[in-house]
């Protein structure tokens, strides 16, 4: 018996939502937030904070540190020391600040593509060079191109690798062996790893994500790990995250930069939201995961039955589906534009994620099943009309 109702259809129009700021007949299934209300326990904690009536300057207390430490110890068997934890307003600010402090103008920053498109913005906007190491794609699965990665790391201009663990958009949980090998190569070449782990809780029930820094001392001492409750509990608008940095020299540099960039101070709701999420949101999270991956399986079955021209990349992480459109003999920009104009369905074009992304679209399935079905019906209609042009 479910305690929480993920089938509830919410109306997010006219709420300032980035995702839902679309035409009346359009259905957005793109940007990575969920059409579910957050856990009621989090809402209650925020309402309690609102009721105080005073919203002055705030800072993380012991309960904030304890919430992160306890959660990662119990869920991921990773013991985080208190002094490794640093508050930041978000994972993207962490990435941009780290790029500014740990690299210089003109340096190379490695990404394993296709990968979260904002990585590219953080690199380009700071006048650094993107060094893509495309993932290998074979038999509908992705893997690291170790030979090309090693060459990229040996380039004297390479000073940072930004990693996505688990991987968005390819929905991959990296194995311990892969994380260990990646960490060893980076350490041997004196290239720190900035690991974006914002999707870490959104994995298939029965599967387990491994924190990059938890693998061994090599990884621990050569990494910056960005974590947050925001994707997991649909709190992106509250702007709350943490950075895990065991290496005191790396930590000193990053802390200095996030303070320079004015992204080191919580708003009045940042800490209460995170504390409630980690301490009281676990049952909600477990039910959410069941629902999300039932949605993923529903999409796979629907495509196989109704839209065989599209192929879902199997994955055990995130609510963002990576769908191959090669059989349409088109590219992601042309198809997503057609889809929006002819059906009102809005999905992400894969091109913006780099690598072989132009052969894919990204579909967000974090929504009630009825809305998901409507999206798939629009997708079906779009494919039929596209092929009949």
Describe the protein's architecture and organization:
α2 packs parallel to α10 and α12 packs across α13 (about 370-385). The chain folds into two domains: about 25-40 and about 280-385, Aspartate Aminotransferase, domain 1; about 45-280, Aspartate Aminotransferase, domain 2, CATH 3.40.640. It is globular, with a radius of gyration of 21 Å. α7 (about 215-220) links the parallel β8 (about 195) and β9. The chain has a seven-stranded mixed beta sheet with strand order 2-10-9-8-7-3-4, sandwiched between helices. Strands 11-12-15-14 form a four-stranded antiparallel beta sheet. A two-stranded parallel sheet has the order 1-13. The chain has 13 helices and 15 strands. The longest helix has 25 residues, at about 280-305. Helix content is about 40%, strand content about 15%. The N and C termini lie far apart (about 45 Å). It is α/β, with parallel strands linked by helices.
What's the helix and strand layout?
Layout: E1 27-28, H1 40-51, H2 62-76, E2 85-88, H3 91-102, E3 108-111, H4 118-124, E4 129-132, E5 136-138, E6 141-143, H5 146-154, E7 158-164, H6 176-188, E8 193-196, H7 217-221, E9 223-227, H8 230-233, E10 241-244, H9 248-260, H10 270-280, H11 282-306, E11 311-312, E12 320-324, H12 332-343, E13 345-346, E14 348-349, E15 360-364, H13 369-387
Parallel strand pairs: 1-13, 3-4, 3-7, 7-8, 8-9
Antiparallel strand pairs: 2-10, 5-6, 9-10, 11-12, 12-15, 14-15
Helix pairs in contact: 1-10, 2-10, 3-4, 3-9, 11-13, 12-13
